[in-house]
Amino acid sequence: MKRLLEGPALRTGVVAAVALAGGLLSAPPAVASATTAATVTTSVTLTADASALARPRNGTILYDRISGGQGRLKIKNGAARDGVVALVRGKTKAISIYVRAKSTATITDVRDGTYRIYFTTGTRFSTSKGRFTRNPVYQRFNEKLKFRTTATTLPGWSLTLHTVRGGNARTTGVSPKDFPA
Q: Cβ of 123: how many Cβ atoms within 10 Å?
């Protein structure tokens, strides 16, 4: 004779089946009898900004509004902290790229134009905020970079985010609110 589950045992079996179907349990539920009631408890802990604080890969383009040109910008970050470089044309942020510490990244499709270059370094980058959440430093290069493609030349620049002896680029600190996030 088959036994029919009723009452609390039936509900426990249904809850366990739903939890298994949703991938919340890794083992099958215990067999419930008609005389004992069991409780299935599932605990899931999520951090609010865990995915937002994931460290981007080196060379990740974070923002791309003006690209499609033939210009190249090579960025070397010899510093101990990750960095983000943002190209601004006029008052419009054009492109930004993530450059990990002790790494080099290249933007290969910069359109012709004159760009002001901003950069920030820090730790714990938040992709949702577009900023470092710990120890951020915000700067910009004093000189603007001009990209101009001709029939015989393709424009290209190389920048370093760390101090170089004999380097020819000067920087100025900027307020976090003035950084093009």
A: 14
